[in-house]
Design goal:
mainly beta, two-stranded antiparallel sheet, disordered N terminus, Single domain-containing protein
Length: about 100
């Protein structure tokens, strides 16, 4: 069965006193992403240091063709296209 949206994952990163993120309560989003391993779906792991992670709670939705998407700067609610689709306002095949 094919689902339009694979899933939404909430990822809350662990912030330590020595963190270079510069986050303080209440947590906010930064452009620097350092996080523990996060299971983001069946067999899919977002590794530490990847761009889809931040010091705030992050919601990630994977989308199919023609669905409205957001760019990577739209934290904390990311609407990312499934590969190989790219985001041009909606998910479209790469040119």
């Amino acid at each position: 069965m094919k689902h339009t949206m694979l899933h939404v994952v909430l990822a809350i990163c662990i912030i330590t006193a020595t963190s270079a993120l510069g986050c303080s309560p209440p947590l906010n989003c930064t452009g620097v992403f350092h996080c523990p391993l996060i299971l983001s779906g069946p067999g899919v792991v977002i590794e530490s240091g990847t761009k889809y992670c931040s010091c705030c709670p992050v919601s990630i939705t994977y989308l199919d063709e023609n669905e409205p998407c957001t760019d990577e700067g739209s934290l904390p609610n990311l609407r990312l296209c499934r590969e190989p689709l790219v985001c041009k306002g909606t998910c479209v095949p790469p040119q």
